[in-house]
Design a protein that fits this description.
There is one protein chain. The protein is mostly beta strands and 127 residues long. It is built from 1 helix and 10 strands; from the N terminus they run E-E-E-E-E-E-E-E-E-E-H. The chain has a single domain, classed as 3-layer Sandwich (Rieske Iron-sulfur Protein), CATH 2.102.10. It has a 4-stranded antiparallel β-sheet with strand order 2-3-4-8, with no helix packed on it. The protein has a 3-stranded antiparallel β-sheet with strand order 1-10-9. It has a 3-stranded antiparallel β-sheet with strand order 5-6-7, with no helix packed on it. Strand 9 and strand 10 form a beta hairpin. It starts with a strand and ends in a 19-residue tail after the last helix.
C-alpha cells in the first residue's frame, strides 16, 4: 500500500478556501489553502456544533466555522480562546503543485465521528 494518496493539484483548492475529500468511512476531510499556498487538512466538522468547516472563511492560518463563527486553527485543529475543543487533523504532503494525504489516516483516523442527525421534534406530551 502507498503511504500517501494523491488527492488533487494545488490549483483545485481555492485560495482562502477549501475542498472536501470524501472517505469510505467517516466524515469528509476538508483541505484548506491559505494566501501563502500552505495546505492543511482537518476533519470537516467543527468541535462545537459540527458545522462543515469546508464552508467557512479561511483567514491567515485559521478557518471560521460557518455556524457560530468559532475560529479553528488550521495547524492543529484547536478552537481559539475563549472557545474550547479540537477537530482532528490529517497529514498533508505537497510535492510541487500536487497534494497528498497520508493513506492510513484517510482510512482510519476519526472514522467514528458522526454528524448529528436532525429528526422530528418531540413535544414531551406523551404522544
Amino acid at each position: 500500500m502507498n503511504e500517501w494518496t494523491l488527492i488533487c493539484n494545488l490549483q483545485e483548492i481555492p485560495v482562502l478556501g477549501a475542498r472536501r475529500v470524501a472517505r469510505a468511512h467517516g466524515l469528509d476531510v476538508a483541505l484548506f489553502r491559505n494566501a501563502q499556498n500552505q495546505v492543511y487538512a482537518l476533519l470537516d466538522s467543527c468541535p462545537h456544533k459540527h458545522g462543515q468547516l469546508s464552508q467557512g472563511i479561511v483567514f491567515g492560518n485559521s478557518v471560521a466555522c460557518p455556524l457560530h463563527n468559532w475560529t479553528i486553527a488550521l495547524v492543529d485543529g484547536r478552537a481559539q480562546a475563549p472557545d474550547e475543543g479540537c477537530t482532528p487533523t490529517f497529514s498533508v504532503r505537497l510535492e510541487g503543485d500536487v497534494v497528498y494525504l497520508r493513506t492510513a489516516e484517510l482510512q482510519s483516523h476519526a472514522t467514528d465521528v458522526r454528524r448529528p442527525l436532525a429528526g422530528p421534534a418531540r413535544c414531551g406530551c406523551g404522544s
